[in-house]
C-alpha cells in the first residue's frame, strides 16, 4: 500500500468526514498544505491541523501529534514497495537501460506520479513536471531521493537519466 493511503492524518480526516478543502479552511491553511501532509512530505504540520482533527475525531491534538510522529519515524526507515518495484530496483543498470522510457520504469515502481512522489517524499509537481517535459533533466531532488530512499547506485541512476521521457 502506498504511504499516502496509510497516513494517520489522512485516515483521521476521512473518518471525521472532512474533505481536504474543509480541513484546510477550518485549520487556516491551504488545501495544498493538507495534501502535502497526507503525502508524507511535511515533517511538521501546523498545530491548527492537529487541533481541528482532534475536535472532529474525539482525540486530543497531542495524541494525534504523537500518532503522526510515530508514523513518520516508522516510514522514514521503511519504504513500502511492491514486489514488482523491488524487482525493478534490483535490476542491474544494463537491464534498466533497456526500459523503453522513464515512464514505463516509474510505473514499475509506483502506478502514478503521485504515488511515486509519495514514496520518494518529493513534491508531486516535481515528478509530474519531469514526466510532462521530455527535454527536462532529471531533477536533483528526485536523484537524491532515489539514492537515499531506494539506495540506487550511481550507475543505476545514470541508466535512469538516459531513459527517454514519454511525451504526453
Describe this structure in words.
The protein has helices at 3-6, 8-15, 20-27, 31-38, 47-57, 61-77, 83-90, 93-96, 102-109, 113-120, 124-131, 140-150, 154-161. The protein is elongated and about 55 Å long. It folds into two domains: 3-77, lambda repressor-like DNA-binding domains (434 Repressor (Amino-terminal Domain)); 83-161, no CATH class. It has 168 residues and is an all-alpha fold.
Report the β-strand fraction as a percent range. under 5%
- Give the biggest sheet: none
Order of helices and strands: HHHHHHHHHHHHH
Globally, the shape reads elongated
Structural class: mainly alpha
Give me the oligomer status.
single chain
Give the count of helical stretches: 13
Whole-Å distance between the termini? 27 Å
Number of strands: 0
Can you give the mean pLDDT?
88
Amino acid at each position: 500500500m502506498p504511504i499516502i493511503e496509510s497516513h494517520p492524518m489522512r485516515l483521521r480526516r476521512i473518518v471525521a468526514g472532512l474533505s481536504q478543502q474543509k480541513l484546510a479552511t477550518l485549520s487556516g491553511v491551504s488545501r495544498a498544505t493538507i495534501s502535502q501532509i497526507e503525502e508524507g512530505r511535511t515533517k511538521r504540520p501546523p498545530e491548527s491541523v492537529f487541533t481541528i482533527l482532534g475536535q472532529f475525531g474525539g482525540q486530543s491534538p497531542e495524541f494525534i501529534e504523537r500518532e503522526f510522529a510515530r508514523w513518520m519515524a516508522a516510514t522514514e526507515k521503511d519504504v513500502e514497495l511492491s514486489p514488482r518495484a523491488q524487482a525493478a530496483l534490483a535490476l542491474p543498470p544494463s537491464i534498466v537501460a533497456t526500459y523503453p522510457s522513464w515512464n514505463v520504469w516509474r510505473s514499475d515502481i509506483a502506478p502514478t506520479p503521485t504515488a511515486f512522489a509519495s514514496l520518494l517524499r518529493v513534491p508531486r509537481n516535481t515528478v509530474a513536471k519531469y514526466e510532462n517535459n521530455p527535454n527536462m533533466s532529471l531533477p536533483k531532488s528526485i536523484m537524491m531521493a532515489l539514492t537515499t530512499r531506494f539506495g540506487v547506485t550511481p550507475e543505476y541512476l545514470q541508466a535512469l537519466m538516459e531513459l527517454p521521457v514519454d511525451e504526453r
